[in-house]
Amino acid sequence: MTLYEIDSALEAALEKAFDPETGELIDEAAFEQTEALQLARDAKIENVALWIKNLNSDAEALKAEKEAFAAREKAAKNKAESLKKWLGYALHGEKFKTDRTAISWRKSVALEVNEDAIDMQRLGPEFIKLPPPELNKTAIKDAIKEGAIIPGCQLVERQNIQIK
């Protein structure tokens, strides 16, 4: 579904220019063919802006669908785990086999940790994982704005397009 109708010749020329899998520009010549189209500059700009709005709408719909599928996946996994617990209760460790399924048991060892009962100060460093350090980009940006010089960092002014 599209929200806006796009000039078909312009859309076809631009579709050839971009990779359908990644959305990256792959054919500069096809991209430049848009200049040869018999459309006014304002009409081309309007069509491309409308196409961007269509693509952003598609992206939002795909994101919502992805979230819905993730919720359904989580519900299915939770249900499967609950059913496994029920089988464990029903079988009490016994094996079960039919022509269509077989249920058996294997031993495993898992670590259970009560973090409230652990004194992290007394544990050796080999037992503690620390997250790798991360740059606080907001603090760096603020410091540079106040005149600090931080090697490898600079403020760059950009022009960001707004399509409404």
The outline comes out as flat
Beta-strand portion reads: under 5%
* Fraction of helical residues: 40-55%
Kindly report the average pLDDT value.
Answer: 88
Instruction: Specify Rg, calculated over alpha carbons.
Output: 29 Å
Q: Which sequence of strands runs across the widest sheet?
A: 1-2
- How are helices and strands ordered from N to C? HHHEEH
Structural class: mainly alpha
Number of strands: 2
Low-confidence stretches: none
Largest sheet: 2 strands, antiparallel
Number of separate helices: 4
Structure explained in plain terms:
The chain has 164 residues and is an all-alpha fold. Helices cover 46% and strands 2% of the residues. The protein contains four helices and two strands, in the order αααββα. The protein has helices at 8-17, 28-32, 41-91, 137-145; strands at residues 96-97, 102-103. A two-stranded antiparallel sheet has the order 1-2. A hairpin with a 4-residue loop joins strand 1 (96-97) and strand 2 (102-103). It is flat and about 75 Å long. The two termini are 19 Å apart.
Q: How are the SSEs ordered, and which strands pair?
A:
Blueprint: H1 8-17, H2 28-32, H3 41-91, E1 96-97, E2 102-103, H4 137-145
Antiparallel strand pairs: 1-2
Which short descriptors sum up this protein?
single chain, 164 residues, mainly alpha
Can you describe this structure in just a few lines?
The protein is mainly α and 164 residues long. It contains four helices and two strands, in the order αααββα.
